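Deliverable D5.2: sample structural annotation.
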Amino acid sequence: MRFSAGVLLGFLVLPCLLYGTDGNVLWPKKKPLFPAIFSFGNSYADTGNYIIEVDPRPAADGVGLPFVPPYLDKTQNFSEGANFAVIGARALDQTFFLQQNITFAAPMNSSLSVQLRWFEELRPSLCNTTRDCGDYLGKSLFFVGEIGGNDYLACLSAKTVEQTKRICVPAVINAIAAAAESLIQHGARRIVLPGNVPMGCLPAILTFYPSPNVPDYDSYGCLRKINALARYHNELLRRSARALRIKYPDAKIAFADYYQPVLAFLRTPELFGFDRNRTLVACCGGGGQYNFNPAALCGFPGATACADPARSVSWDGIHLTQPAFKNIAKSWLVGPILSVALGLPFV
């Protein structure tokens, strides 16, 4: 079983946002804090769109978790939100990559512009008048991301890290900002922009881009240059969030941090119940130094899962485990989500 941010949204965040919590944050107990949640992004948030697109069977059947329903499942009721995210999705259209002589194709046509088009197709069924849409969408919560990681993997297939940082990162950030602005123009007023994880710490990246030079790795064993790429992405995304808040003062737009929470897992894993000796090793995989093998991916023949996933940070070398996402969700609930809900100061 693979855990993703779909679990974060469905298992922890969504019930808290729609129905309140019994924890330290005093959310309303009766009336939902948000009438609906709409999510855009990649596999860190996909709750079934990819499965429906490539194998049209009912997604997440029998799981029993309150996922934000995948948009491509037309049998769903989307009155409380929809998930447009797709595994492997990129922020940028394929045209950008072809212009850069990058032939590494996405698994399906599901870029951020495509996901926005899906939202525009759904919108008339959600609300009718300008006033109704302004009230409904203005009070709903929108996640735009996490997205961009797949774009950078495509860029790195043909360019250096520095070229990717110079050419691809600004283009990705512009696409995310444009998507957020488009949603604002459609009536959205509460938007969360999740940043990138420390990609240089992912078992998959460590496997694909090994270096014989010890200085290329930091004290946690992560690749310095690729983490610098992720930090640059996050800094530009923070700037975009600030710029959008200035341009649209009525909108509440917050950056949500994946990077620092994951570093905290590596710095003091015992505090979160993780095994210090396996912080960079995937729980589910096909062997190797980081237990990530492209020839035996998690869920395929040759791969096995560790005995206790709760002791691991990484589930399959790309995605985090449920306990990791749960800890990140806690930080988001008292950070960016609380900010957009109550209009608190942003960082």
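Annotation notes: The chain is about 40% helix and 5% strand. Confidence is low (pLDDT under 50) at residues 1-30, 50-66.
The annotation will be released with the project's public dataset once the embargo ends.
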